């Protein structure tokens, strides 16, 4: 039997099916941007794009963490609450007079710690990620109101500097510190996923956890790691959120985990795991941002239209994933 | 076998699970440069022995010596690191990752801490070239056939400098050509000095490739024999522990003539039934008491035909008549109501529910047919379940045992019982004997004969031609998703002729005359 006859496969399999959702998102983004530019003259201003990044920097960071989790086939519902708790704890500690650097370190430890514990619960007790992170979500949200029922303003010098610092070009376009932080997170995450064993194990586990185990990959360690990473990203997002609002509010970022999941899925990451890219997640966040901006520019539309459009898009993208058959299980 | 020192010696191995003694005082040796077949019926302890060796299970008693050292692996990865690699029956690769990555994941060559992708691809290509496989190593493994995936799994296994390569039923999903390619690789690896432990249910394959045979029965060692000194019949006797000529007896039994069976209205008659992308239009009639064999290679559309009959897939075109009346088979419930039962080829994914007990699995279809609100009384359940556990000699004969604890052959029997309980008029058996041992195989074949003698129509699908020829009154041959021939199974039909039809499809004109 000749070798070639074993290896022939249908021509459609040669299409870059795994890149298809990302390409679709990119096309969608360009179309939406095109619509914006053709409708509103000011839309072509570079600062519009920068503003999208400024307004969604924290969302992007959290979505990067969520990408890790979803790539393993899991889900993390706690991220919005964890971000809020991080902002809340920062505001509270700053109010009590702790030095800014120490506050930063403490605030950045809480999220990963919670993520680590949730990862352990998911792995060692074999509990659904949905329910474990739901518990984490309630816990973190409860901690917010436990700290204070009311919003705590931040007046610390470091925080206000970070909030107001502008990194700009000579023509007056600028980005905030959080955009830089978000980009660093994205680049590090992309590197980790593509070039480290941890990253490849994430994909392997998302592809087929049983096989991954039999191939001797560290299933438990990787799963715990992704929830810890997601917790860390939520914590960084929380800090960026507190830069953005200069306060800690107990009811901020309610439901944000769902926006984050939407961004990741629209960015082409498959919910059953094993397929997706951080770059796609960036595009997903941008799609959300462009929709918001379009609706703001229109002025007559209610901001809830954002949700309606996102709902429609989310459905369309999940349908697309199903139609092109990126399901390995 | 030139080296007189075994690379692996297992002595006095015992292993018990709650309620079952899986292995009792088993010895096993493996020499470098040999293919050693591990034979036994389902439940004889083959899988347990392999899992004990690779550290999936701990051992209760006994000693494992690899090379000069006593070993007790903590798991497959540690075993692989020490040179004992396993390729499982179900290919265990990550379908979403590339071929190259599947070979190297967990031990990728790295440069400055980062995965060195160029090196990964280069080494993957080199390895696959050694296995005579020229494929795109950057494509996802899911885009290749099962056979290629199996080779990739072997490539992964031998890259870890394997001294011992365990192949656990590697051929059960491969067609003849693919098996040949696998054997070529096995011989090559053997000549390079690797010891290969080969588990299979195909006796002829054992005689084609194995140098030595170890036989297990009921968790105990029967013996170790050079292949040349153990005739096939003797091997079967050792495996099942008694003289077995059931298979021969089936052929000796007088079967009703096809002409007699084909009198009267057919039970099911389909004409020009088709489904785009699955199977080209075909027509087939099945009468009560008739066994219709469906022959063809893997992927030729056999299963697709079966699924159309059962309504598991919807036909795009074509007509169906049941007992002469136009009928619709658009979903399984309609099919069940018409008296059609379907034993899926994929018993793990589509048939057996592993966590339910034997009893629960058996009554599932009957309960579904009655409607969920009319519970089958417990007494009736016990009656039925006991009857079929006896009739099919399901072991262990414990209706309350979760099905996951049963061996493959016994799971298959439970699945069969599930449909037999509903007393179907047409039973579709898709590869009912795949991956099960010769004893259980004979029992299932005997059962098919009994059922058809009792008036049940059977659509029998199997990759093993002998089996199809032995049981069927007539044979429909599938080729490239098309039904190319209908053969009446008389004296003029033999394996060669069916094979030729499968290969060339030239019987079509003759059959249509």
TrEMBL record, chain A:
Primary location: membrane
InterPro entries noted in UniProt: ABC_transp_permease
Full protein name: Simple sugar transport system permease protein
Database matches in CDD domains: TM_PBP1_transp_AraH_like
Keywords: Cell membrane, Membrane, Sugar transport, Transmembrane, Transmembrane helix, Transport
Naturally occurring in which organism (per UniProt): Micromonospora phaseoli
PANTHER family: ABC TRANSPORTER PERMEASE PROTEIN YPHD-RELATED-RELATED (PTHR32196), INNER MEMBRANE ABC TRANSPORTER PERMEASE PROTEIN YJFF (PTHR32196:SF63)
Membrane topology: Multi-pass membrane protein
UniProt subcellular location: Cell membrane
Transmembrane intervals: 21-42, 48-70, 100-125, 132-154, 174-194, 224-245, 251-271, 303-324
A GO molecular-function descriptor: transmembrane transporter activity
Short name of one Pfam family: BPD_transp_2
This protein's GO CC annotations: plasma membrane
From TrEMBL, chain B:
Gene Ontology molecular function, alphabetical: ATP binding; ATP hydrolysis activity
ABC transporter domain location: 8-243, 259-505
Pfam families according to UniProt: ABC_tran
Keywords, alphabetical: ATP-binding, Cell membrane, Membrane, Nucleotide-binding, Repeat, Sugar transport, Translocase, Transport
Keyword RNA-binding: no
Cellular component, GO annotation: plasma membrane
Matching Gene3D superfamilies: P-loop containing nucleotide triphosphate hydrolases
Membrane topology qualifier: Peripheral membrane protein
Superkingdom, taxonomy of origin: Bacteria
Localization terms from the record: Cell membrane
InterPro entries referenced in this protein's UniProt entry, alphabetically: AAA+_ATPase, ABC_carbohydrate_import_ATPase, ABC_transporter-like_ATP-bd, ABC_transporter-like_CS, P-loop_NTPase
Name the UniProt record assigns to this protein: Simple sugar transport system ATP-binding protein
Source lineage: Bacteria, Bacillati, Actinomycetota, Actinomycetes, Micromonosporales
